[in-house]
Amino acid sequence: MSKRILLINPPFYRLLGSHYNANSLGIAYIASYLNQNGHDAWIYNADYVNQREYAELREIFDSFVNYTDYFKNENDPIWNEVAQKIIDFNPQWVGYTSYTANISAIDIISRKVEKMNPRIKQVIGGTHATLDGLVLEKLQCIDYSVRREGEEAMLALVNGKDPKTISGVVSREGVGFCDNGDANVIKSIDNLPFPERNKIYGIENDEKKFVDVSYICSIRGCPYRCNYCASPFSWKRDKTQYRSPESVISEMKFIKKYHWDTKKGYDFSASANTLTKEALKIKDNTIVYFVDDVFTIKKQRVKNILRLMIDQKLDMDWKCEARTDHFDEEICDLMSKAGCKRVKLGFETGSDRILKEIQKDETKDDMRRGIKMLKEAGVPVTAYFMAGFPGETDEDLKETIDFAKEIDADYYSLSIMAPYYGTKIYYDLIDRGYKLDKKPWEYFFHQTGDLMVNNLLSEDLIDEFLNLNKLNDSGKGYL
Ligand code: SF4
To answer: What mean pLDDT comes out for the span 146-175?
Structure first.
């Protein structure tokens, strides 16, 4: 029997004075998979705000105190608003997508939902649920957690299969838990339906045009091993899955046809018939964002995708994350010709010593070579850098600042290194006596100094680092 399901992205950036208005792909895939299998699943992005102005990174640092206040007051209107919207939808099941920083929000909301309607089954999935097999211990009102890819596990749950027999599901058993380990890796990700882009709940129809539905995932996972990154643990590093170039191109065409070119109108997904054509016009969708950890893994595959974009005259702008050591002249040239409007590159530090320690498996010279080719091809660059690695000295950070100036990126994304839960660096630091496991969950994100694990760096230098963007104010169109 068809079930009514709400997949929720809890508020997080909203609490920091910013917002996240894109389609959250993890829950959008779960929704489309459930809908393909006869259910009625919708997406509720509780981080959406009807504003066009985003807080700059620096402002997010500054709003940290206000942010922590939300967690001290569980009766803040924002929590009641989200819980009430969930209740108003009248779901039989809800699923929350998690990362460490939003666990406290999920806790507050799920307790309210349980109180208002205890018949609703509540499930948590996503990165934190995958990394923390004991998350249900902290989340008293969540019924099940799902580890790794959630499509098949969530379908089995809502179909009424015994949770104790579902791969990837952790359920309660007496005072303990039944943990069925990781969900099976989905090997044929080409066969998954495209993520849900129509059944968007919780915002007015005229606001839906501001939801950015142009995010595409072409790879699940990352084969690298950077020690500050949760990806190698939240996905199976050795089981990274790639969509075929044809599948990627077909999703780009789908987006262009149904969400960009508003003159052509819309084909509706089977059960999105309560929406009007007008409501689905996406006003601001002008660029595809490949949200893969690293879009450029597997050179030949990437070149094939780029050639298809060119040969089939897609004429669509796009941006992606990449590594400099993947570039050669041909890739850079193809990227430029295929409509690439920005590449985001994780340099992280200008110190070869730190690069080695963080297991980046790239050197400064690799980076110099890569960015030179990309710049010659005329593709704008966003450069990620961090300060505050364990053991990083003023000398190292000076090298970072000099290196950042040398590469002359169009935009710098700058942050304080946060030892995310589940990363190698997190466990290394705990072994060395840092009480990271005593920190509130909501502190685990980059834009706070509160997780700083380095007391060697001088404040003035950190300030100089965080102000690097003032060097260069151009290229802010597609950060
Ligand atoms: S930082 Fe990037 S390249 Fe390194 S493991 Fe994470 S996703 Fe992969």
So the answer is: 97
* Per-residue pLDDT tens over the stretch 328-360: 999 999 999 999 999 999 999 999 999 999 999
* Distance of CA 321 from the midpoint of ligand 1 (Å): 10
| Residues 71, 108: Cα–Cα separation, whole Å | 8
Residue by residue, DSSP assigns 172-229 as EETTEEEE--SPPP-S-GGGSPPPP-S-EESS-GGGGGGSB--EE--EES-S---TT-
Residue 168 CA to residue 170 CA, distance in Å, equals 7
The two most distant CA atoms of the chain are separated, in Å, by 64
8-state DSSP, 193: P
Q: Pick the atom of ligand 1 nearest to 228's CA.
A: 1
**Euclidean distance between CA atoms 270 and 125, whole angstroms:** 26
- Positive/negative CA dihedral, 137, 141, 146, 147: negative
- The reply to whether ligand 1 has any atom less than 6 angstroms from the CB of 346 is yes
Question: Ligand 1: which of 218, 220, 231 to mutate, judged by most atoms within 8 Å of the beta carbon?
Answer: 231
Which atom of ligand 1 has the smallest separation from the CA of 232?
Answer: 5
Q: Whose CA is nearest to atom 7 of ligand 1?
A: 293
Phi/psi-derived region of residue 169, left when phi > 0, alpha when psi is between -120 and 50, beta in every other case: beta
Tokens found for residue 124: 């948590």
* Ligand 1 within 6 A of CB of 232: yes
- Taking the whole predicted model, whether its pTM rises above 0.85 is answered as yes
How far away, in angstroms, is 223 Cα from ligand 1 center? 8
